[in-house]
Amino acid sequence: MKTETRSFYVRIVQGVVEHVARHLDEALALDALAERACLSPFHFHRVFRGMVGETALELARRLRMERAAWQLAHTPLSVTEIAFNAGFETHEAFTRAFRSCYGDPPSEFRRRGVRRVELAATCGVHFDERGIVPPFTPRDSGGRNMDVEIKQMPEQRVAAVRHRGPYNQIGEAFSRLGAIVGPAGLLAKPDAAMIALYHDDPESTPADQLRSDAGIAVSADADLPASLVEHHLPAGRYAKTVHVGGYEKLGDTWARFLGEWLPESGERLGSGPSYERYLNDPSRTPKEKLLTEIYVPIAD
What we know:
Elements: H1 2-22, H2 30-36, H3 41-52, H4 56-74, H5 79-85, H6 91-102, H7 106-111, E1 149-153, E2 156-164, H8 171-181, E3 194-198, E4 211-218, E5 229-233, E6 236-244, H9 250-265, E7 275-278, E8 291-297
Antiparallel strand pairs: 1-6, 2-4, 2-5, 3-4, 3-7, 6-8, 7-8
């Protein structure tokens, strides 16, 4: 089961890597790539980043830049043409990005006859003018050995405030939530727990349109203020890990969890949302001691 499950995730991610590498002149339809991978956009982003070491968009940008370097070294195309081919709207923007990657501006790179075009990438996939896409090398940063518990969770009722905007600004919604649930007495309940739900893929959704919910777990019979949105997290099997430290590093833990631990675990993602559960108050807890539980639904 473990080998079969790992092969499943390797196969679907390899298919997306090949699609990206062979369609560098096309805009990436990331939701379509998620559908191709048989994953929700939210889970696709984290599985792909965790396994490949970069997002699908970052992969495409790097391969376009490598192609630009190859074209500078092997073709008479003008720098402006190459810049447009790489997806840049101006010569100046391309020059800045190219210098950042290769240390020289494009014209100097060409003049010096540089032939090295590969940029650092742990996955081992690089631009190939023949269209060859090798098997990618799955990233291994220790995620396979994460401390993960499989739990049978009951259905949970969550009362929430909707947040629209960058995920790293969801703290504003938690402040609004606190101002509502505190006077309502919900914070004093023994089963109260702060929970965040994320609904969109930050790769394919503009930052100002990302949807998330800052919520609190409540009992089935609790009376809710009318200004709160009610969610029900389905009962079922969940994989749980704990992130220790600042919230800005949560994305890395998600990537290791879904991109390294999951493919090696013998488990597959189930339907339903994943969520974060916060175990302490960031206003009273040193950042290095913050604890966040991450829950991912697992198929039966």
